[in-house]
Amino acid sequence: MSSVIQAGFESWSSRIPINSALALVLLVYVRGWFRLRRTLPAFTSGWRFAAFMGGLFTLWLAIASPLQDFDDELLSIHMAQHILLMIVSPPLILLGAPTLPMLHGLPRSFVRGPLSRLLRYPPVAFLGHVVTNPLFCWLAAMIALIAWHIPAVFEFALRSEAWHHVEHACFFVTSLLFWWPVVQPWPARARWPRWSIPLYLFLGMVVNDAPSAFLAFSDHVLYPSYAVLPRLLNIAPLNDQAFAGALMWVFGTFVYLVPAIIITVQLLDSAASSVRMQGPATAGRIARALDSLQEENTG
């Protein structure tokens, strides 16, 4: 067996557990979604289904597709993985409102038995309350973003397959937490006023821009492994690094900024509607107050 075929076979076989897990999640969600479609059609919608499918597909692209075979050869490909894990897949999955479909897709005996007891266990309930606090969500995601892009830490993950998986899991989990207060999927409850979310996103964008600019404008290769590894398409390591930083900067800014603008517009529309509704009632109260004042002066 040639070295190329052997490497390809080993790469494919190593993805079997991940692909199996993703396939299981897909089957459970689809089963639960169709069950809800029959009993609660108002809760299910095509766009939520499509969002979850898109989120699961981009997660597969990041961690189980052939893209992973090249992440140690080009930093820009590695950065594309990080973008998928942090700012594409998590919000799409949460927009799919996965909790209720997943609960309906799992066996009822499991949901009503061990899972119900686990979720009602006080330490677990307290942990859930803590990790869904927006401050915790923001800090966890930003610390993970900065820490894993420190050159020494990044290099350590490149040299260890196990820690590389830990890095990707850390990005994905903390990003799910980051987007939780923004999307607020069922059964999430608002912990902060909605007007604070655009600021929450803006500050996340600022932190994302820091390592992006560091990569884009550095005059030397920050991660030595990419200076000595075989090059794809004869791209110079420094150019590859600059492109990776620009990709993270531009795409990250867009994804953080767009929902912040949408939420701001929604808040302004809501405030304008409230003013329009209160306008006639306020005008009536003012008119009555003026009539009362006029009667007092006449008397």
The share of residues in helices is over 70%
Percent of residues in beta strands?
under 5%
Helical/strand content category: mainly alpha
| Main sheet makeup | none
Mean pLDDT: 84
Number of domains: 1
- In DSSP terms, counting alpha (H) and pi (I) runs of 4 or more, how many helices? 13
Tell me the total number of β-strands: 0
- Radius of gyration, Cα only, in angstroms? 25 Å
Uncertain spans, ≥5 residues at pLDDT below 50? 1-9
Euclidean distance between termini CA atoms: 109 Å
The H-and-E topology, N to C, reads as HHHHHHHHHHHHH
| Backbone shape | globular
Highlighted features:
299 residues; single chain; mainly alpha
Describe the structure in your own words.
The chain has 299 residues and is an all-alpha fold. It has one domain (3-298). Helices cover 80% and strands 0% of the residues. It is built from 13 helices and no strands. It has helices at residues 3-14, 16-39, 46-63, 75-95, 99-105, 108-120, 122-131, 134-148, 151-159, 161-183, 196-217, 225-228, 237-298. The chain is globular, with a radius of gyration of 25 Å. The relative contact order is 0.09. Residues 1-9 have low confidence and may be disordered.
